Amino acid sequence: MSKAKDGSKGGRKPAYRRIMLKLSGEMLGGAAGKGLETSRLKGICSQVLEVAELGVEIAMVIGGGNVIRGQKASQESGLLHRATADYMGMLATMINALALQDALESLGGQTRVMSAIEARAVAEPYIRRRALRHLEKKRIVILAGGTGHPYFSTDTTAALRGMELDVQVLMKATKVDGVYDLDPKTHRNAKRFKRLSHMDVIRKRLGVMDMTAISLCMDNKLPIFVFSLEQKGNILRAVTGEAEKIGTLVG
User: Which numeric CATH code is attached to 18-250?
Assistant: First the structure.
Protein backbone atom coordinates (compact mmCIF):
# COMPACT_ATOMS: atom_id res chain seq x y z
CA MET A 1 0.00 0.00 0.00
CA SER A 2 1.35 3.39 -0.88
CA LYS A 3 0.74 6.67 0.84
CA ALA A 4 -1.16 9.30 -1.12
CA LYS A 5 0.81 12.47 -1.83
CA ASP A 6 -1.72 14.70 -0.10
CA GLY A 7 -1.80 12.51 3.02
CA SER A 8 -5.23 11.15 2.13
CA LYS A 9 -6.36 7.60 1.51
CA GLY A 10 -9.33 6.94 -0.67
CA GLY A 11 -10.39 10.58 -0.22
CA ARG A 12 -10.10 10.35 3.59
CA LYS A 13 -7.90 12.88 5.30
CA PRO A 14 -6.58 12.62 8.86
CA ALA A 15 -8.11 14.79 11.58
CA TYR A 16 -4.91 14.52 13.64
CA ARG A 17 -1.29 15.19 12.77
CA ARG A 18 0.22 13.24 15.69
CA ILE A 19 -1.40 10.65 17.97
CA MET A 20 -0.57 8.58 21.03
CA LEU A 21 -1.90 5.03 20.81
CA LYS A 22 -2.20 3.19 24.12
CA LEU A 23 -2.42 -0.59 23.95
CA SER A 24 -2.84 -2.94 26.88
CA GLY A 25 -0.57 -5.96 26.90
CA GLU A 26 -3.65 -8.20 26.97
CA MET A 27 -4.53 -6.97 23.46
CA LEU A 28 -1.51 -8.90 22.14
CA GLY A 29 -2.50 -12.15 23.85
CA GLY A 30 -5.01 -14.81 23.00
CA ALA A 31 -8.53 -15.18 24.34
CA ALA A 32 -7.22 -15.15 27.91
CA GLY A 33 -5.04 -12.12 27.25
CA LYS A 34 -1.85 -14.05 27.96
CA GLY A 35 1.34 -14.44 25.94
CA LEU A 36 1.64 -13.29 22.32
CA GLU A 37 -0.77 -14.38 19.60
CA THR A 38 0.71 -13.91 16.13
CA SER A 39 -2.59 -13.27 14.34
CA ARG A 40 -3.61 -10.53 16.80
CA LEU A 41 -0.18 -8.94 16.64
CA LYS A 42 -0.30 -8.85 12.85
CA GLY A 43 -3.86 -7.49 12.80
CA ILE A 44 -3.02 -4.64 15.19
CA CYS A 45 0.13 -3.72 13.28
CA SER A 46 -1.73 -3.72 9.95
CA GLN A 47 -4.22 -1.21 11.39
CA VAL A 48 -1.41 0.99 12.72
CA LEU A 49 0.31 1.03 9.33
CA GLU A 50 -2.93 2.04 7.60
CA VAL A 51 -2.84 5.21 9.68
CA ALA A 52 0.89 5.75 9.20
CA GLU A 53 0.31 5.72 5.45
CA LEU A 54 -1.82 8.83 5.84
CA GLY A 55 1.23 10.65 7.13
CA VAL A 56 -0.01 10.63 10.74
CA GLU A 57 2.84 10.58 13.27
CA ILE A 58 2.34 7.74 15.75
CA ALA A 59 3.72 7.17 19.23
CA MET A 60 2.69 4.00 21.02
CA VAL A 61 2.71 2.94 24.66
CA ILE A 62 2.28 -0.76 25.34
CA GLY A 63 1.40 -2.41 28.63
CA GLY A 64 2.77 -5.70 29.94
CA GLY A 65 -0.32 -7.34 31.42
CA ASN A 66 -0.10 -10.35 29.09
CA VAL A 67 3.16 -11.23 30.87
CA ILE A 68 2.79 -9.79 34.39
CA ARG A 69 0.86 -7.06 36.20
CA GLY A 70 3.02 -5.51 38.89
CA GLN A 71 0.36 -4.58 41.43
CA LYS A 72 -1.53 -7.84 41.03
CA ALA A 73 1.65 -9.92 41.23
CA SER A 74 2.65 -8.15 44.43
CA GLN A 75 -0.74 -8.64 46.05
CA GLU A 76 -1.15 -12.28 45.04
CA SER A 77 2.34 -13.48 45.85
CA GLY A 78 2.66 -11.91 49.27
CA LEU A 79 6.41 -12.04 48.61
CA LEU A 80 7.19 -9.38 46.01
CA HIS A 81 7.56 -5.79 47.08
CA ARG A 82 5.28 -3.59 44.98
CA ALA A 83 8.27 -1.67 43.56
CA THR A 84 9.98 -4.91 42.49
CA ALA A 85 6.79 -6.23 40.88
CA ASP A 86 6.29 -2.94 39.03
CA TYR A 87 9.83 -3.09 37.64
CA MET A 88 9.08 -6.61 36.44
CA GLY A 89 6.00 -5.22 34.69
CA MET A 90 8.11 -2.52 33.03
CA LEU A 91 10.44 -5.19 31.65
CA ALA A 92 7.37 -7.03 30.32
CA THR A 93 6.47 -3.93 28.30
CA MET A 94 9.88 -4.15 26.65
CA ILE A 95 9.12 -7.70 25.50
CA ASN A 96 5.89 -6.48 23.93
CA ALA A 97 7.55 -3.42 22.39
CA LEU A 98 10.13 -5.62 20.63
CA ALA A 99 7.34 -7.89 19.35
CA LEU A 100 5.49 -4.86 17.96
CA GLN A 101 8.66 -3.51 16.39
CA ASP A 102 9.44 -6.73 14.53
CA ALA A 103 5.83 -7.18 13.41
CA LEU A 104 5.52 -3.60 12.15
CA GLU A 105 8.83 -3.77 10.29
CA SER A 106 8.00 -7.14 8.74
CA LEU A 107 4.95 -5.38 7.23
CA GLY A 108 7.03 -2.49 5.89
CA GLY A 109 6.89 0.04 8.74
CA GLN A 110 9.74 2.11 10.14
CA THR A 111 10.02 2.04 13.92
CA ARG A 112 12.10 2.94 16.94
CA VAL A 113 11.77 1.41 20.39
CA MET A 114 12.61 3.86 23.18
CA SER A 115 12.71 2.81 26.80
CA ALA A 116 12.55 4.68 30.10
CA ILE A 117 14.66 1.85 31.56
CA GLU A 118 18.06 1.68 29.92
CA ALA A 119 18.59 -1.41 27.74
CA ARG A 120 20.84 -0.17 24.95
CA ALA A 121 21.26 -3.57 23.33
CA VAL A 122 17.60 -3.60 22.29
CA ALA A 123 16.20 -0.06 22.69
CA GLU A 124 17.19 3.58 22.62
CA PRO A 125 16.93 5.49 25.90
CA TYR A 126 13.87 7.73 25.96
CA ILE A 127 14.95 11.29 25.20
CA ARG A 128 12.13 13.68 24.36
CA ARG A 129 13.92 15.61 21.61
CA ARG A 130 15.12 12.43 19.96
CA ALA A 131 11.62 10.95 20.08
CA LEU A 132 10.22 14.08 18.45
CA ARG A 133 12.81 13.81 15.68
CA HIS A 134 11.84 10.19 15.01
CA LEU A 135 8.18 11.21 14.78
CA GLU A 136 8.99 14.03 12.38
CA LYS A 137 10.76 11.44 10.20
CA LYS A 138 7.52 9.39 10.23
CA ARG A 139 8.97 6.59 12.31
CA ILE A 140 6.53 4.84 14.63
CA VAL A 141 7.90 5.37 18.13
CA ILE A 142 7.17 2.51 20.55
CA LEU A 143 7.63 3.61 24.15
CA ALA A 144 8.57 0.87 26.61
CA GLY A 145 9.54 0.69 30.26
CA GLY A 146 6.62 2.76 31.55
CA THR A 147 7.72 5.99 33.21
CA GLY A 148 10.79 4.22 34.58
CA HIS A 149 9.36 4.47 38.09
CA PRO A 150 7.19 2.07 40.13
CA TYR A 151 3.64 2.93 41.23
CA PHE A 152 2.76 4.50 37.86
CA SER A 153 0.59 2.71 35.30
CA THR A 154 1.14 2.61 31.54
CA ASP A 155 -2.03 4.73 31.26
CA THR A 156 -0.16 7.44 33.12
CA THR A 157 2.86 6.83 30.89
CA ALA A 158 0.71 7.38 27.80
CA ALA A 159 -0.70 10.63 29.21
CA LEU A 160 2.72 11.91 30.28
CA ARG A 161 4.52 11.01 27.06
CA GLY A 162 1.58 12.25 25.02
CA MET A 163 1.93 15.70 26.53
CA GLU A 164 5.72 15.68 26.23
CA LEU A 165 5.46 14.79 22.54
CA ASP A 166 2.67 17.28 21.74
CA VAL A 167 0.18 14.71 20.47
CA GLN A 168 -3.30 15.91 19.59
CA VAL A 169 -5.18 12.94 21.04
CA LEU A 170 -4.54 9.95 23.29
CA MET A 171 -6.25 6.94 21.73
CA LYS A 172 -6.90 4.07 24.14
CA ALA A 173 -7.59 0.82 22.32
CA THR A 174 -9.64 -1.72 24.26
CA LYS A 175 -11.93 -4.70 23.67
CA VAL A 176 -15.02 -2.53 24.36
CA ASP A 177 -16.38 0.05 21.90
CA GLY A 178 -16.21 3.05 24.22
CA VAL A 179 -17.25 4.11 27.70
CA TYR A 180 -20.58 2.91 29.15
CA ASP A 181 -22.67 3.98 32.14
CA LEU A 182 -22.83 0.29 33.21
CA ASP A 183 -20.77 -2.78 32.41
CA PRO A 184 -22.03 -3.80 28.94
CA LYS A 185 -21.00 -7.41 29.57
CA THR A 186 -23.52 -7.77 32.40
CA HIS A 187 -26.11 -5.08 31.62
CA ARG A 188 -28.01 -5.29 28.33
CA ASN A 189 -29.36 -1.77 28.83
CA ALA A 190 -25.91 -0.22 29.25
CA LYS A 191 -25.61 3.07 27.39
CA ARG A 192 -22.50 4.09 25.48
CA PHE A 193 -21.44 7.69 25.85
CA LYS A 194 -20.41 9.43 22.63
CA ARG A 195 -18.76 12.29 24.45
CA LEU A 196 -17.73 13.07 28.04
CA SER A 197 -15.66 15.68 29.81
CA HIS A 198 -12.62 14.66 31.83
CA MET A 199 -14.48 15.79 34.95
CA ASP A 200 -17.46 13.56 34.04
CA VAL A 201 -15.12 10.56 34.06
CA ILE A 202 -13.68 11.53 37.45
CA ARG A 203 -17.05 12.29 39.07
CA LYS A 204 -18.73 9.15 37.77
CA ARG A 205 -15.65 6.98 38.34
CA LEU A 206 -16.08 5.46 34.90
CA GLY A 207 -12.74 3.67 34.87
CA VAL A 208 -11.58 4.95 31.47
CA MET A 209 -8.01 5.23 32.77
CA ASP A 210 -6.53 5.59 36.22
CA MET A 211 -7.17 8.88 38.01
CA THR A 212 -3.58 10.11 37.64
CA ALA A 213 -3.77 9.75 33.85
CA ILE A 214 -7.22 11.38 33.64
CA SER A 215 -6.13 14.30 35.83
CA LEU A 216 -3.00 14.86 33.75
CA CYS A 217 -5.04 14.91 30.55
CA MET A 218 -7.64 17.24 32.06
CA ASP A 219 -5.06 19.69 33.39
CA ASN A 220 -3.32 19.82 30.02
CA LYS A 221 -6.45 19.67 27.83
CA LEU A 222 -5.45 16.44 26.10
CA PRO A 223 -8.49 14.62 24.68
CA ILE A 224 -8.81 10.85 25.13
CA PHE A 225 -10.54 8.59 22.64
CA VAL A 226 -11.66 5.16 23.88
CA PHE A 227 -12.54 2.60 21.21
CA SER A 228 -12.47 -1.08 20.35
CA LEU A 229 -9.60 -2.56 18.40
CA GLU A 230 -11.64 -5.71 17.76
CA GLN A 231 -13.26 -4.11 14.70
CA LYS A 232 -10.78 -3.96 11.83
CA GLY A 233 -10.12 -0.44 10.53
CA ASN A 234 -11.23 1.39 13.68
CA ILE A 235 -7.95 3.26 14.15
CA LEU A 236 -8.27 4.58 10.59
CA ARG A 237 -11.91 5.54 11.18
CA ALA A 238 -10.98 7.37 14.36
CA VAL A 239 -8.23 9.47 12.81
CA THR A 240 -10.36 10.37 9.81
CA GLY A 241 -13.16 11.95 11.81
CA GLU A 242 -15.49 9.10 12.79
CA ALA A 243 -14.48 8.98 16.46
CA GLU A 244 -17.91 9.58 18.01
CA LYS A 245 -19.50 6.96 15.73
CA ILE A 246 -17.26 4.14 16.95
CA GLY A 247 -16.23 5.06 20.49
CA THR A 248 -16.20 7.69 23.23
CA LEU A 249 -14.36 11.00 23.07
CA VAL A 250 -13.31 12.41 26.43
CA GLY A 251 -12.34 16.06 26.50
Answer: 3.40.1160.10
Q: What is the pTM of this model?
A: 0.90
pLDDT tens by residue, 156-211:
999 999 999 999 999 999 888 889 988 888 888 888 899 999 999 999 888 888 89
- The string of pLDDT tens digits covering residues 59-97 is 999 999 898 876 777 777 777 899 998 999 999 999 999
As a three-state string, the secondary structure of the chain is CCCCCCCCECCECCCCCEEEEEECHHHHCCCCCCCCCHHHHHHHHHHHHHHHCCCCEEEEEECCCCCCCHHHHHHHHCCCCHHHHHHHHHHHHHHHHHHHHHHHHHCCCCEEEEECCCCCCCCEECCHHHHHHHHHCCCEEEEECCCCCCCCCHHHHHHHHHHHCCCCEEEEEECCCCEECCCCCCCCCCCEECEECHHHHHHHCCCCCCHHHHHHHHHCCCCEEEEECCCCCHHHHHHHHHHHHHEEEEC
Structural domain spans, the chain: 18-250
